[in-house]
């Protein structure tokens, strides 16, 4: 099943892909089954039942609505750095023997079509196309062999990074959490519709139509199953939590000359079976002080 979280006329909604396009319901419509996060957390047959309900809903023109992040408010967003050997090499790091993990916060999330904002304080806005995993069951101390049974579905992520802020300290938090830099979408595809662990799928990132990253998901150092198993060994993963699995080589930081995203650019991340996440780049307005 392929779901779309969207907004129209000030209301959020949920749609599912059918043989004749997307159909769905707005949150204020009778019979609305709930948003995607609540359905994932409900577990059991909630997603299947919701899909059947939404398929009887109104036609949704996904080009005429605002697509939202599939899951807008996950409890945790766990990102994996240096998970492709060629990217570790181009970044000047020895390949880690344990996943390089860092957190994103949901305040940074945007959906397909929304602008990634280059902050006023930096020119060094970089792209990172990645596979996103959405957890479907409480996972604590699970083995790699059983870890994929805890996946609800998959999506695409652009872990847009402000590089000079990323390297201001040994921890990468600042450079990975500017507002409107975590592009997520366009769809949520249930795990049963894809190869286990997304093995065999390809990832391509394009900047203004030019391919800047290209890799197979199989090239990840730590597979989806291994990442889930390792993370669950020290923390409890909850339904709706998102794991962003790492980016391959070709980032702007490592190029000569360096290639930064700027006003007017368009960045696309495509993964087989998951669609294409596309976002324009805009300059952020100067920040006003909070009251």
From TrEMBL:
<dbReference type="GO" id="GO:0046872">
    <property type="term" value="F:metal ion binding"/>
</dbReference>
<keyword id="KW-0456">Lyase</keyword>
<protein>
    <submittedName>
        <fullName>Ureidoglycolate lyase</fullName>
        <ecNumber>4.3.2.3</ecNumber>
    </submittedName>
</protein>
<feature type="domain" description="Fumarylacetoacetase-like C-terminal">
    <location>
        <begin position="76"/>
        <end position="281"/>
    </location>
</feature>
<dbReference type="GO" id="GO:0019752">
    <property type="term" value="P:carboxylic acid metabolic process"/>
</dbReference>
<dbReference type="GO" id="GO:0016853">
    <property type="term" value="F:isomerase activity"/>
</dbReference>
<dbReference type="GO" id="GO:0050385">
    <property type="term" value="F:ureidoglycolate lyase activity"/>
</dbReference>
<dbReference type="InterPro" id="IPR036663">
    <property type="entry name" value="Fumarylacetoacetase_C_sf"/>
</dbReference>
<dbReference type="InterPro" id="IPR011234">
    <property type="entry name" value="Fumarylacetoacetase-like_C"/>
</dbReference>
<dbReference type="Pfam" id="PF01557">
    <property type="entry name" value="FAA_hydrolase"/>
</dbReference>
<comment type="similarity">
    <text>Belongs to the FAH family.</text>
</comment>
<keyword id="KW-0479">Metal-binding</keyword>
<dbReference type="InterPro" id="IPR051121">
    <property type="entry name" value="FAH"/>
</dbReference>
């Amino acid at each position: 099943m392929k779901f779309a979280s969207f907004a129209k006329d000030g209301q959020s909604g949920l749609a599912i892909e059918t043989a004749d396009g997307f159909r769905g319901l707005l949150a204020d419509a009778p019979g609305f089954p709930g948003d995607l996060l609540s359905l994932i957390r409900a577990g059991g047959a909630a997603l299947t039942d919701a899909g059947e309900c939404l398929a009887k809903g109104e036609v949704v023109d996904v080009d005429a609505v605002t697509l939202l992040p599939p899951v807008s408010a996950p409890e945790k967003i766990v990102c994996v750095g240096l998970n492709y050997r060629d990217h570790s090499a181009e970044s000047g790091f020895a390949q880690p023997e344990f996943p390089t993990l860092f957190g994103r916060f949901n305040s940074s999330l945007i959906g397909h079509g929304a602008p990634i904002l280059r902050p006023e304080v930096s020119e060094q806005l970089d792209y990172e196309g990645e596979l996103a995993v959405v957890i479907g069951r409480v996972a604590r101390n699970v083995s790699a062999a059983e870890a994929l049974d805890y996946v609800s579905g998959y999506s695409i992520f652009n872990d847009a990074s402000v590089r000079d802020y990323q390297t201001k300290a040994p921890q990468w938090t600042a450079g990975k959490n500017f507002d409107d830099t975590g592009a997520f979408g366009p769809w949520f595809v249930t795990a049963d519709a894809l190869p286990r662990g997304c093995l065999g799928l390809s990832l391509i990132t394009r900047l203004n139509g030019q391919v800047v990253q290209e890799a197979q998901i199989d090239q990840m150092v730590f597979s989806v199953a291994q990442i889930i198993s390792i993370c669950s060994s020290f923390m409890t993963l909850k339904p709706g939590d998102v794991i962003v699995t790492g980016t391959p080589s070709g980032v702007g930081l490592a190029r000569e000359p360096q290639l930064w995203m700027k006003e007017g650019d368009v960045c696309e991340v495509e993964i087989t079976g998951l669609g294409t996440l596309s976002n324009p780049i805009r300059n952020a307005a100067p920040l006003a002080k909070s009251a």
